[in-house]
Amino acid sequence: MRSRRDALRTIGCGFGSLALAAMANAAQEGSARNPLAAKKPAFKAKAKRVIFIFMQGGPSHVDTFDYKPALIARDGEMREFLDSRTIANSGSKAATPQRILKPLWNFRRHGQCGRWASDLFPETAKLADSLCFIKSMQTEGIAHGPATLFLHCGATNFIRPSMGSWITYGLGTENDNMPGFVTISPSSGNGGPRNYGTAFLPPVYQGTALGKAGSPAAEATFNNLRNPALDRAGQRRQFELMQSMNAEQLRRRPGDNELEAVINSYELAWRMQGAAPSVIDTSNEPPSTLAMYGIGEKETDNFGRQCLLARRMAEAGVRYIQVTYGDNTANPAWDQHSNLPKHEQHARAVDKPIAGLMRDLTQRGLLEDTIVWWGGEFGRTPYAEKNGTGRDHNANGFTVWLAGGGVKPGFSYGETDEFGHFAVQDKVHMHDLHATILHLLGLDHESLTYRHDGRNFRLTDVHGQVVKEILA
Fold first, then answer.
1. 233 vs 238, 240, 269, CA distance in Å?
2. pTM of structure
3. Contact, 15 vs 270, CB < 8 A?
4. Fewer Cβ neighbours under 10 Å: the N or C end of the chain?
5. What's the total number of domains in the chain?
């Protein structure tokens, strides 16, 4: 594993170093410095990278990992509920009668830890002893757009840098020949590129998209890795000429962040031509590995390919990897307002690939220093929306899980009320989750700042507490 990563780190650096030398001679302001070079964490880190498995649309926590017997016992009863969603829908702050809806799938205890999981996720449930559940999540935003932006950027409306960009800004990449932040099959809706954008951070820290939601993962690639018009020697001459001219421009315009970002992006793109094709080429994976991810099976092939690419990105030294299960339609994948049974279709598509990713990371020794984070932008209500067959959005209490990278395995933290409606014990705000993940990476969320428009900004704004109780 390590030898592969070391090899990837050195691929392409011969030609790239020539360009860097030219830039260093042409610009004395340090334009040759690679802003994506690995940086030391502020303190001893327990993890080196993050894989965020984003379940777009908000899976129902009370149908997956938050077992609530009261929902079964009181199924069909009318009860008054009051939350931000009912206020928004009714325009009134009066509690609204709603019909309690039991989970549609059976729950069972799993592993030596005895954690609850429903039959929606049978393969993931087998790994319960490796998972750390947070069942008291709260967030901002009751609609998909604001909540998704808050999940990724720590703000519902202002244009702020994404979490992956903050992490890459703070730590750089483990591999100079690969981006520090890659987003696999991102959606164009509910924030779109803002969810992996840099806002006011230097553009070099923006996420690099690999494929897009709604398109086959088998076709996902980085564009323009090959030049059909020039051979490698011709490309080298062209590249060196272009970068020397860019460096001369930078010498005349010192401090131009956008120009410096362009120069750095060209340099990275040149190095990626040597490294990236082998990283995204899965044809050399053994059949046993493909089967573990569900590749080749109709239901799981697409997301299995996304998860396999995530493992290969982690192995190649990419710092922050996001894997989106979603689409580009008006209603995000897990958004079942009137057809909750469709959760089963989505669960079948992702369950085996997620478990395969976890097992693969473990057998390769990567899970111990990789944070795997699973979750959506919010959860779902314990009542049936409009007395129908689905659930509405619930930002007041929901579940995510983490694994690897310094969190307690087989652990559960926090609780919602008896119906799974509101977080009531050991509440964890999304700002707290962000702060905790940064802490595991060796970053202080209060010190990781960037000055813009006369003030220091950070991912957690002026909020956030590290949830020390979940740290191993």
1. 9, 11, 16
2. 0.89
3. yes
4. N
5. 1
